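Hey, can you fold this one?
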Amino acid sequence: MADQANTTEAADDRIRRRSDRTAGRLVLIGGACEPDGEALGAFLRLSNARDGGKIVGITTASSDPAESARHWMEAFKSAGASRVEIPVLDRRDLAQDRRIVKMIEQADGIFLGGGDQVHLVATLGGSRVDRAIRAAYARGATICGTSAGAAALTETILAGGEPDEYGQMQKLHLGPGFGLLGFRAMIDTHFTQRRRLQRLFMVIGRNPEMLGLGIDEDTALVVEDHLGSVVGRGSVTFVDGRGVRFDNADECMHGAPLTLSYLRVGIVGAGYTLNLRERELEVLLEARRTEAAGAAELEVLRMDTDLES
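Sure. Predicted structure:
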């Protein structure tokens, strides 16, 4: 029975690892990205935008999609992108428009702007445009989101749970996203600038199986398969709650101070890579693999020596 369980576990692991492979790449930006910055630059480079690659932008998350479209057209032009289309997609019925779908089908890069991630998913979710974005990612297109656009690309989105501009506490929202980023990840943006660490701690405390990713402004997590590389001015904070032994996160919803024990937190700066599958820095995992390979080689040498003697 033990051998059968081990075989099943190994098969499940192979399936999980195979599902990590993707044709496309994700560029997840924490908001407030500069046109000439490295974060947006990663998207332009991966979509070949400065050399004729086509970008399609979606500004549905904005409270004023038309004005946001004009802003991003200027920003992309300033950044050197030569072929950019940003249809004004401000209603659910337009998410079924075959002309917009055709644009997405021909795109090398798809850009989702900031605003309200809940509104973005509610407007596009399950539509022809949604399906076209998924198909584009599957065939190898680069999908970029900034702020709400990045938050919406996970399986579960986070919104609210902090004071609004009038000082009133917003209700915390956890709901389905577009699901292009797996690994049970949840993204929080404008992370350091808006001091959202406490919010992410509370959410992960209540949902310890999730992986919290807090992305700073003008910073991108560039994801290919199971590896996320950080580029830009800031850092990406990751919060892993699987080892938590105590939390009072539910009480926090009623005003109690947060108490947590054994929460695992890391910060990844530009130039470093986070292994999303293992929830650890790739440089540490590489060191462990090298050490394990060395130990295995030493064991083989010992066996050879024993046989000779």
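Confidence is low (pLDDT under 50) at residues 1-9. Let me know if you want another pass with a different chain boundary.
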